[in-house]
Amino acid sequence: MKKFNLHKINKEELTKLHKNDLGMDIPKDYFKTSKSKIMEKVTISEKEKPRVFYLRPSFGYLMAASIIILIALSIVFKYNIKTKNNLNPADVENLANANDEDILINSLFVSDDDMSNFLDTYLVNNVVENVEVMEKEFDNIFLNSIIESDALIDIYIDDNFVENIIL
Asked: Residue 23 region, left (φ>0) first, then alpha (ψ -120 to 50), else beta?
């Protein structure tokens, strides 16, 4: 029997060799039809995969929506958010009298209608307080300078000193 290099032989020559050596002819489209016959006989029963309830997309959307609602409700109940700021003028004045550090935070609680009253109260209180503090400081400086100058004059007052100045 001869050795053939099957890679160099084309399909027609291979069919002739097969027919001559084996004495059989391969029917036309044999492998295509045999495959389809085998596939018809073997039926693959496709079982539907059991779907886990919590892995379904609709369940995921439902869970996401419920989590968002819970977070929103917890924020509303925790901070007791009101739709309107119903602050009376006394509350506005108390907020304006707060520390300077808290003025920005307190201004958030004041509605736009009461904002001018809030700012007026805040400015008046701060200006009055600052003027009073500055006035006290000025009085203290003035009194200290008078006391010190009197003390210095007492040191230099001598009979000779006064006579020299007068004469």
From this structure: left
